[in-house]
Amino acid sequence: MAQVLCDAGNDVLLWGRNSAVINEINSIHKNSKSLGTTQLPDQLRATTDIQAAFEHGAALVLAVPAQTLRENLNSWKSMIPHDRPLISSLKGVELSSHLRMTEVIREILGTPDDQLSIITGPNLAREIVMRQPAGAVAASTSQTLADMTAQIFSNSYFRVYTSTDVIGCELAAAAKNVIALAVGMAIGMGYGENTQSLVITRGLNEVTRLGIA
Asked: What is the CATH architecture assignment of 2-164?
């Protein structure tokens, strides 16, 4: 996602805990541990200083494992600026509370809805870094913030649509993995494209009903 933001013309400062990875990104613009030999944008900068990361830029993008969000926010909340939009790229629900990611953010930080958005879509990192065409949805209860989120992520290979249905987008992002598992099971059992298409189609229908409910 940092590459997507850089390719969209943004000044990006990426935060991470692993100093070896951060140094590699800054020195040779690679993350060989996760992305192999892929060359990252020259303008991408990285740091292990979380305070510096929070002070940088006009918006903050949260991109940590979903089940660590609460722990991380509790340790960061005194440092997070309250005057900047928060954009969540996390997918899933919190196992302990069954809360969606934006609900966890609101509970801990008290972030108002018009400062909170999500970026979500069925995207794999290894294909994104190859700059293969991909898409996503930027969602916020504020259309203005949804538009802004879409703008900062959009580039020549990454198309972003907007929505004000945050609940539906978050539920779809979590439930799509269940559909993916079902399709994988169908493939493993030797079923062909007809069966796979059926699972995908009916799965999407169920996700839609879940979002409406």
From this structure: 3-Layer(aba) Sandwich (3.40)
